[in-house]
Amino acid sequence: MSDTLTVAINRTRLHSVETPDGFETTGSFDIELENHGEAVHVHVHLDDALSEAASVEGINHHLRPGATKRIPVAVHDDERSVSGRLKVAAAYGAETRYVDLSLRAVRPTKPPVEVDAALGKPANREHGSRLGSGSGANPSGSSGSAGSGDVLSAGVFGGRDGVGRPAAALGVLVVLLAVLAVVTIDSPLLLVGAVAVLVGAVVAGYVSLR
């Protein structure tokens, strides 16, 4: 329900105009003209300052004897407060009154913005450092598996942890014996057998090295 500014016409004498000295409101309101006597013409007007924020529905009004009329005043700029003067004149200016009118700005209440308390806390650096140096990490950048040096040494010695070392030593011994047999045996048949043994030993040693 809008506020109402009441103006009494012809109450104390002919063409008299009675208004409050000041009127303050928020948003649109009504001017109520109450005629207490003979028919009369009433003029209402907003000054320049008020006209920038509000407008009155008609400025010239005819009141019949004893009639009451409501005149809407629409406020179309309610984001700022405006003050000015409202003019009310009866009988074409026979009597004029001015009302100090204040239009207060409408300030809608906005809900407060809720901020998560966790946003104000610093990041957990300890947790990040733990992720960067996990239990399975290797400072050299390699995984927990054996490096290239371990593989090379394992291949040379015939397997990891020296498992193939006796077999390699035995192969070397067989090669030496076969070479000695080739050099010392004169029989062609024995010589062929010795060569076969030698070839087999070489192949066995190559396989063990892989």
Task: For this entry, give a set of tags.
single chain, 210 residues, alpha+beta, Immunoglobulin-like, 2 domains, 5-stranded mixed β-sheet, 5 helices, 10 strands, 30% helix, 30% strand
Short description:
This protein is an alpha+beta fold and 210 residues long. It has helices at 48-51, 125-132, 148-156, 165-184, 188-209, and strands at residues 3-9, 17-18, 22-26, 29-35, 40-46, 54-56, 60-63, 68-75, 82-90, 95-104.
Walk me through what this model shows:
It is a single chain. Helices cover 30% and strands 30% of the residues. With 210 residues, the chain is α+β, with helices and mostly antiparallel strands. It folds into 2 domains: 3-104, Immunoglobulin-like; 153-210. The chain has a 5-stranded mixed beta sheet with strand order 2-1-4-8-6, with no helix packed on it. It has a 5-stranded mixed beta sheet with strand order 3-10-9-5-7. The relative contact order is 0.11.
How do the helices and strands line up, and which of them pair or pack?
Layout: E1 3-9, E2 17-18, E3 22-26, E4 29-35, E5 40-46, H1 48-51, E6 54-56, E7 60-63, E8 68-75, E9 82-90, E10 95-104, H2 125-132, H3 148-156, H4 165-184, H5 188-209
Parallel strand pairs: 1-4, 3-10
Antiparallel strand pairs: 1-2, 4-8, 5-7, 5-9, 6-8, 9-10
**Which segments are poorly predicted (pLDDT under 50) over 5 or more consecutive residues?**
139-163
- Residue share in β-strands: 25-35%
| N-to-C span | 100 Å
Morphology call? rod-shaped
Mean pLDDT: 76
CATH class group of the largest domain: Mainly Beta
Helix count, per DSSP? 5
Q: Assign a percent range to the helix content.
A: 25-40%
Name the quaternary structure. single chain
Spatial extent as radius of gyration? 57 Å
